[in-house]
């Protein structure tokens, strides 16, 4: 929620094959015993652990200024004492404003795209923060200040710290201490059992698989294999998940990690958060191996659930970046964009294609693991 916005682009990384043992399906010779966290790596001093001073002035001129004025007005209807200072992030879907409410620093999130899908997603996030008021999760979350589900406006406290990664897919392998902190927080969330009826199931697995198959992103054999695994998981107990366990939704601070953006929270097949985190750690094979061990430590059912989740997450990412590559090809390259004339830099389209290639390799590896799991049933 706090990370700065950027266009969908891939990190600047060289292509290299996956090291042995970093896949989602462990070598049978290795013991999949439970792993409490990532080993190794020295703890580094947290950067930006304290509150950052606020300064600046909102530009309310022009067409974009009109949107900001409307957003500020919607915030003032539910939190009159909110004084906006900076635009923290802005996209075509929403805007984040940082400001003060009395002596407290707060962040206001306002929806700009009021289409049914985004409205439902925003209201789901408001419902999650309201639920956390009575039933605190086992991790730190921003405190709710005010919310208006009708106008899709949310105000929460601003937590001190730094984002674990500003990119969806980190350019370089994150520090092991950062991954260990994020993974620990995610595992604590997955062990939490909120009261019945507080959260629903955001993902309908059968429909999502059929949808990706209809788009040509899954083969006929993928469809059959995933349906077989789903059938075997029909009586598996669901697991509460954050639903978007990316490093750019984890705020690191000396007091402990904070999880942001709860608009996908709910009940999933076990291992959904682990599959999400695994998918974005392409340059961290050790972390991937630890996540794979955690995911299947509970036995074959947990392994199968993780693999189903992983196939869906990777397919979603492939679709996301295929769309990004197509959009980049249609749009003219801005003046000053790194390219052949800038040594050591790749054009945005080439970066996206490199990431897309890695995602396809990951998906092929997950596909082989799914087929191996089906063969053991």
Low-confidence stretches: 4-12, 26-52, 339-345
What's the overall average pLDDT, rounded?
Answer: 85
The largest pleated sheet is described as: 5 strands, antiparallel
Give the fraction of residues assigned to helices: 40-55%
- In angstroms, what is the radius of gyration? 21 Å
Could you characterize what this model shows?
- The protein is an alpha+beta fold.
- It has 9 helices and 10 strands.
- The protein has helices spanning 62-78, 116-134, 176-191, 205-214, 220-232, 272-279, 285-296, 300-330, 348-375; strands spanning 82-90, 94-101, 104-111, 144-148, 153-157, 162-163, 239-241, 250-252, 258-259, 266-268.
- Strands 1-2-3-5-4 form a 5-stranded antiparallel beta sheet, sandwiched between helices. Strands 6-8-9 form a 3-stranded antiparallel beta sheet, covered by helices on one side. A two-stranded antiparallel sheet has the order 7-10.
- Strand 1 and strand 2 form a beta hairpin.
- Helix 5 packs antiparallel against helix 8, helix 6 (272-279) runs antiparallel to helix 7 and helix 6 (272-279) crosses helix 8 (300-330).
- The protein is globular.
- The two termini are 41 Å apart.
- Residues 4-12, 26-52 and 339-345 have low confidence and may be disordered.
List the helices and strands and how they pair.
Blueprint: H1 62-78, E1 82-90, E2 94-101, E3 104-111, H2 116-134, E4 144-148, E5 153-157, E6 162-163, H3 176-191, H4 205-214, H5 220-232, E7 239-241, E8 250-252, E9 258-259, E10 266-268, H6 272-279, H7 285-296, H8 300-330, H9 348-375
Antiparallel strand pairs: 1-2, 2-3, 3-5, 4-5, 6-8, 7-10, 8-9
Helix pairs in contact: 4-5, 5-8, 5-9, 6-7, 6-8, 8-9
